[in-house]
Amino acid sequence: EVAGIIDWDMSSREDLSLDDFSNFYAKLLRVRQGLTTYKMLFEYGGGLPEFEELYEQYFNNTQTDILPVPVVLLFNWIDRVYKQITMNESTPDRWIERNVVEVLKRLANRADIIPE
Length: 116
Hints:
The protein is an all-alpha fold.
């Protein structure tokens, strides 16, 4: 029985992709904490304890500084918006207003996510 599928098309063992990693983390939060992407950005209250080791391991393996979780979730949001707009030519303006413009307005006041 298949419990789930992870699409690792942009990653490799040697050079893990932040795109895949952020999608994996965001999916876990959506499934286990019932958060929408919007709520993850603005109401995120903590991570998944069982995921913390993997989180640190990702940054150690890529030899990069550990990013705060809200930044990784923002990266996930950017990736989702980009794919929606570029892969769906009929994305309604209402979707863009609600899921992009409103989020950008709220992000303007979030120095913890977007440092100066």
